[in-house]
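so i finally got all the pieces together for this one. its two components total, 582 residues if u count the protein bits. some of the lines might not be protein, just check the labels. i wanna see the whole assembly predicted at once instead of chain by chain like last time, that was a mess tbh
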Amino acid sequence: MSQEDSLDSLLAAPRRHRSAEPPSELEPLLETADRLASIRETSPSAEFARRLEGRMLAHAADLAQVSAIRAEPVRWRRALIARVALIAACLLLALGTGALTVAAGAEPGAPLFRLHRLEQGVQAGLSRNSTSQHIAFARQWLYAVDTAAAQRQGDPAYSDALMALREEDANAAQGIHTQAPSAQRSAMEAQLSALRADEVTVLRNALPRIDWTDRITTTQALGALGVAVPHVTSVTVSGDTEGRWRVVVRGYGIQPGAVLLADGQAVGTLTAQTGGTYVATISAEDSDAANLVVSNPDDMTAVAPSVSVVSGGIDATPVPSATAQPEETPQAEATPVVSPTSSPEAN
Amino acid sequence: PRQVEEAETVSTRWSQEQTFASVLDQARRLDQEALGLLYRQYLTSVFWYAMGRLGDVDQAEDVTSETFLAMVDSIARARAEDDLAFEAWLLGIARNKVSDHYRRQAARPTTQISANSWDEPPAAAEAGDPLGVVVAREQWADVTAALQQLTEEQRTVLLYRCVLGYDTEEVARLMERQPGAIRALQFRALASLSRLVAANGTNPRTGVLRAGSKSRTSRRSPQQGKQRRADEPGR
């Protein structure tokens, strides 16, 4: 056997499986090969892998969008195309071609972002598989959420991206719900399940990096994904004669160590009482009732629908919370699309 | 050959879920799931290739990112009869990205190894063993640096065989050479690489190799000598 053949045989076997000592003249080559092969002991980090996948899929979604706009319409879609084209023509007349061109690249937070979203809606309607298109768009906006949180861009970039993500998630779920059971539906369900697992991961990671108002909407989004989140059903604020205010919070999912925030600043730690009731004492200057919210140690944040202020023993009219919003519950989420054996919580 | 269990996992995965051909076909239409499948399947190979060429985790991640984004851009034109051919196509993109990286570096004089490369957190698989990280990096850092001094063919055969784990038959197919030629090429490449590494004072066994290679030289035919000179670094 030639030296080339001997070396080739030795390279084919991992070091630990090599039997006898190799020929002395081949030892330096094997040692060099083994050192080169030690690169296999490294691997890309999970964080890098996840980010790159999101970035790649978002890039693919953008390319697909451009391709769809340029593609020739198929004959059988003429009626739908004509209707949508009429709408698009009106938009063009109203806004100008230049505005639409700019809108195509409008990022979350940009003035034309809503127009971009409208354009995506049109594209999804034209797509042969609108559910898949919605999932692709959701991936795109999930990446945008992650980026906005990492760059601490805050509102409106973060909130625009989060809203777009939730809309596309809901659209995808709705699309699946309307499909008859089939292999394609199962495939779509698997894609949506994987997407939602990634949404949970990204949104959890975003919490420490965003401000308290965005934490409220992010917490609501996590709740819609099936994550256990805090809920506040009522907040009652009453004053005493010494100028301090007693805040009684009723709710569930409130963790030990949860704090009360007033305009995003921690003003008191909540102490658990009985029956889902929590109490904190705050100073008079912190008692701006319109902006009292509860924040768990994991940064999940909840706001009450309203705050009751009790003054002098007389119940005042409940003050609607300035930051409370009706929790968006997309219609299709009533239909579970996650298989019983999987969990939305990826972590 | 690659580890048997790894090959079986790859082939089983394609056949159980979808054939490679159908996955590629869907990926050409920018289907998210298909692209994700290809990404997860080939991420490590591309990363290892980039590590073998650059020797630095940050730079390897940059090249890996550029490679997969370029894959999306050009996948509509990808023509691969099987996953091996596709991987070769993808690694060709990675090779071009590495070349672009070196051209950019040549345009602005910076050190190939970033100042923080030894201080950065290790790749995930090594996070629990800091000493292991240092040892592993010492293992391949000087070897990958020397690798850049080989010819393109020599680098390719060593990366395919030693880093990516292809067997001789697979490398022969990818490089469109006969298996015998690949065995000869890899022998010369490893010999050259060992000499280069030893020249940096890290391989004490070089004395044995040089004595052996002299005796082989005396038995070479003129044609073999011409081939050997053609394979020398820099040609």
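Chain A is about 50% helix and 15% strand.
The longest strand of chain A covers residues 231-239.
anyway lmk what u think
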